[in-house]
């Protein structure tokens, strides 16, 4: 079986510890369908499930992950258990092999229909740096920051799949030297390296989700680049928050890692002082030891540690619903920029270059303050899997096109 | 023909000047379908269009307005012209009558699938009052206010149809007398009387919509109550804007008035000083002379004049897309609270009671600062139609249930 696509090296990308879900098409078959990455291949999950007579075949046989997301945790667990058997038990190899396509041959798409999108602000290091840069005359953290996970709604309609080109946004900015705003392409275009979560199981209006019910509602995890125009944002964001500085595009990685793949990655979150209100306390740790890497034109520029995030995704979900706001299948929420205490752990250029004052020197001899046209940014991540294995998040990438 | 449902009094509600679109069901037929309000009746638009052999029958024959919204302005105009003929030309009366149901017999539903939701802040009187109340030590209008229509994204998933009960939200608030936040039901629950707009014709990412292209993209207009928890909002909103203080519920009126019904209501907006940047200037007036009325438990408490809004909906659309953010069919955006210069023209209780310091005295002898459990709020509006007629917006109403 050594030449079987199922016989993958222990350190191969997308090994049995990950089994992420995505949506793909091929040149010869442009239908979008649900796939599972395994080594250098993608399993056509719908066709495999039908062939195996799996009871869950109907929810994985559509054009995207929507039906699987809505099916709920017992089905999620059942599908993952079946996948693990099919892909790793040699007795199933002959049956599974016809449903594999080469990963290099597939085009990946947005994996599910995005309902609402909320972006949080959960890294103490990031929030402190941004506060120092944007509001140098005030305390860097606002008085509410350690009492609640601050968040705001973003634009769902401009969440795009990895690989989508990003047109430089245009708009108003007010340079400090001017008394009135000027108009033109953004000159401080930035990234934000984040981790995204997608809700599967919905709730009714008036219902709350407790911190300990996180895994019953959240299906999976992916990477997210919250492209940000710092000059548009700085001028517009008081008093109602970011708007056009963020709404032009948000890119997500195409492979959704199920939450159940991250059991070995769960760690204690940083100590919280003051202790949060009871609705934000859980009995289980939901820190997640994801190690992100940010590359600009191929050069590693940052390695943000997700394990240091002050607020967990479980706390964010509890907060988002404490007022009775309902959840829908496909709701996305993101962590906020992931930044650690070290310079080389900062998840955006605003911090990495200290608002442009300390340019990044790239190995090709060029310097960057903010993004230039043609620049390509790629965020990747891994996490520990069981028994020394590795969970792979794939990548979210995008290239900047000139303003129109 | 005097007992015909088509023979309506000149001053009847929903006369030929309005012809609004909605989605209804009846006790005997629970399918949701597209209806047009006419006097005391509702026309089953899908069945009428099929019976008439109308070329647009397919786009009005679904469970909601989505297909009509996506069909574009030429079809919108064609449908309205046909409706006007069918309902007002006696030659069509016999053909139309079988497709009418009594308005009192229908249940109204959310009329379309909401994509993204943006809430603006376009009344100078409202923004000035709120600035004085929330930030008494600063200029009431932030420096950007007269340069751009400030807006932010709200939660699409909690936009509900008029008549839906609203559960009082729970969350964190920090009374001025406390050093740390307390948890519990909101004690400063408010309304915001607003006007909403729904996008029909979408755009691609990177594309902009000019001020003068407003009517090619926006299908119609309705009323919106942006329920607001002032105590949650005040504690959470710095620095990223309102979140849980707004996301628990937003109610909209079920009858969508097509933009083309408002030609006679178009007025010049208030003078803008400073002159806005060129992308915010249009060649046609898009002020709209909508006269709102807000009733609390049946008592008129405010009459906000929409014609005084500083920023028009056409400018808001141009601003929302200037950064290349795409539009989707079903995108909703709202004006922000409509307030005029007089006390009795203020569109929310925060302003009407000056943050609770000047309670409203209701004719039943009770007083209100903010909403009490059981309170019912209803917003209505009319606008001038052609030749002295009237355009009716129906109502958006909701009652407060106790916190859970």
TrEMBL record, chains A, B:
Pathway where this protein functions: Amino-acid degradation; L-phenylalanine degradation; acetoacetate and fumarate from L-phenylalanine: step 6/6
Record-linked InterPro entries: Fumarylacetoacetase, Fumarylacetoacetase-like_C, Fumarylacetoacetase_C_sf, Fumarylacetoacetase_N, Fumarylacetoacetase_N_sf
Name of this protein: fumarylacetoacetase
Residue stretches making up the Fumarylacetoacetase N-terminal domain: 18-111
One Pfam family matching this protein: FAA_hydrolase_N
Ranges of residues in domain Fumarylacetoacetase-like C-terminal: 118-383
EC number: 3.7.1.2
MF terms (GO), sorted A to Z: fumarylacetoacetase activity
Keyword entries, A-Z: Calcium, Hydrolase, Magnesium, Metal-binding, Phenylalanine catabolism, Tyrosine catabolism
Cofactor dependency: Mg(2+); Ca(2+)
Encoding gene (name): fahA
Organism: Nocardiopsis alba
